[in-house]
Amino acid sequence: MKHWPRILVLAVLATAFGSARAELSDVEKRIVEAVKARSPTALALLQKSVVVNSGTLNTEGVKEVGRLFRAELDEVGFATRWIDMPASMQRAGHLAGKREGVRGKRLLLLGHMDTVFEPSSPVTPWAVDGQRIRGQGVSDMKGGVVIMLEALRALKSVGALDGSTVAVLLTGDEESVGQPTAQARADLIAMARASDIALSFEGMGRETNGGESVAVARRGAGSWSLTVTGKQGHSSAIFGPGAGFGAAYELARIVNAFREQLIEPGLTFGAGVMLAGTEVDFDPALARGTAAGKSNIVPPRAIARGDLRALTAEQRDRARSRMRDIVGHSLPGTSAAITFAESYPPMAATPANHALQELYSQVSVDLGHGRVEAGNPESRGAGDVQFAAPHAAALDGLGAAGGGSHSPLEYLLAESIEKNAIRAAIMIYRLTR
Ligand SMILES: [Zn+2]
Predict the structure, then answer these.
(1) 274 in the same domain as 386
(2) pLDDT in tens, 290-335
(3) Closest-CA residue to 113 (of 141, 84, 89)
(4) 382 alpha carbon to ligand 1 midpoint, in Å?
(5) What is the whole-number distance in angstroms between the Cα of residue 360 and the centre of ligand 1?
(6) Which pLDDT score, from 0 to 100, does residue 208 have?
(7) How remote is the CA of residue 202 from the centroid of ligand 1, in Å?
(8) What separation in Å is there between the alpha carbon of 204 and the centre of ligand 1?
(9) CATH number for 339
(10) 355-385, pLDDT tens digit by residue?
(11) Same domain, yes or no: 182 and 296
């Protein structure tokens, strides 16, 4: 979190002056014109990327989209490289680019090339219906990547990238992170550590009041796994000193205690699957299990698996410690153990992240658009920016406006490419002065 106090000062000033519209500088006006001049070309680039199936497991498709975007980055003067992942991971790898300078904040721009679609799922033909464009990954998030690339192009064309330090990372497995995660995200974390600010181009949020929002926070996501053991016996003796309560009641006690004692704003902990009986067997890879048992037996085994989503590392750790405490208070004749795994660290709503949102909002106001607020972190799932957030100030949601993501109805609002490329370009320009 290097050097953020200056951003904070700017944000406080922006707030104090009530987001009054300020005149763009001459360079900023030229940046706006440069984005506008390329709008048809930008849509053509989007079309080229969207008619390729780049489902995470379609490694050839992801690489093809990577070649397309790499050529763009090369033209903007970035030193680019393809980061391969080991074959065992069955992931395409990532596209990285960098240009180094001496001025302003060091930025990391994040996007992903893959989509949620199956490798075999046929791509939707490019179809423009008024403002709406349909296609696989059109808003999640090839539109966002095009916005990022067009912003960089515009900056380059007016000489505004000179002297700035900007890194780009487009991951190839955002929708289904390769395992182990530590290896799949090692480059992202290293690049975040070498940056002051991470800007991510997932889709822009739309609030119920019609306003736009960006993400200053995203909830961390992980899982828990509970294993309960008891003493097998005749059910006529249950609750007695010999038989004890059995694994099923102990499992029920634990998950019910979670519900009774843990619920608080921003925290969720689903119990996704539970099994109890004389034998239980669960295969996480297949997300499938079996249990054997009879109605007249005190069952000796039970398992449950669930998730845990939290706004901050502190909230996550507090929840975990209370869950461990509940698990430790076993009913007679039983014992239980819980383990936790984290797939995405929380991106907490830090003052530095809020300051970035205020700067973005001011850019929007200066361009004659409305304010852009901080969205509700519970309205989004988990995303790559969360791996950067512990190491740099972070903001997400600078990408395209659209909807229906992760479904065949996914669409993009075409005008958001130009509009958000302009806002991103001015934002990057102001941060790299
Ligand atoms: Zn996405």
Answers:
(1) no
(2) 999 999 999 999 999 999 999 999 999 999 999 999 999 999 999 9
(3) 141
(4) 9
(5) 20
(6) 84
(7) 5
(8) 11
(9) 3.30.70.360
(10) 999 999 999 999 999 999 999 998 888 999 9
(11) no
Calculate how far, in angstroms, residue 347's C-alpha sits from the geometric centre of ligand 1.
16
CB 177 within 8 A of CB 184: yes
Phi, psi for residue 248 in degrees, rounded to 5: -70, -45
Q: Give, as one character, the DSSP assignment of residue 92.
A: -
Give me ligand 1 centre to Cα 285, in Å. Answer: 23
- 276 DSSP β-pair partners: 302
Determine the average pLDDT of the residues in 25-39: 98
Of 344, 371, 389, which closes a domain? 344
Contact assessment for residue 275 and residue 289, using Cβ atoms and an 8 Å cutoff? yes
How far is the centre of ligand 1, averaged over its atoms, from the C-alpha of 19 (Å)?
A: 30
pTM of the model: 0.88
- 241 alpha-carbon distance from chain centroid: 50
Q: What percent of the chain has pLDDT over 70?
A: 96
Distance 109 CA to ligand 1 centre (A): 14
Structure tokens at 369: 């658009």
Final residue of a domain: which of 302, 318, 344?
344
Question: Are 114 and 42 in the same domain?
Answer: yes
**Which range marks the domain in which residue 244 is found?**
221-344
275 CA to centre of ligand 1 in angstroms: 33
* 197 and 228, same domain (yes or no): no
User: Same domain for 258 and 400?
Assistant: no
Distance 174 CA to ligand 1 centre (A): 7
CA of 201 to the centre of ligand 1 (A): 8
How many A from CA of 381 to the centre of ligand 1? 9
Pairing of strands 212-214, 205-206: antiparallel
Structural domains in the chain (count): 2
Residues 128 and 167 placed together within one structural domain of the fold: yes
Is the model's pLDDT at 192 over the cut of 70? yes
Instruction: Give the distance (Å) from ligand 1 centre to CA of residue 170.
Output: 11
* Cα gap 353→26, rounded to integer Å: 28
Centre of ligand 1 to C-alpha 164, Å, is: 27
Distance CA 303, CA 255 (A): 11
Cα of 183 vs centre of ligand 1, distance in Å, is 20
Residue 190 sits at φ, ψ, to 5 deg, of -65, -40
How far is the centre of ligand 1, averaged over its atoms, from the C-alpha of 107 (Å)?
A: 20
Q: Are residues 303 and 383 in the same domain?
A: no
CATH number at residue 13: 3.40.630.10
Question: Is residue 42 domain-shared with residue 111, that is, in the same domain?
Answer: yes
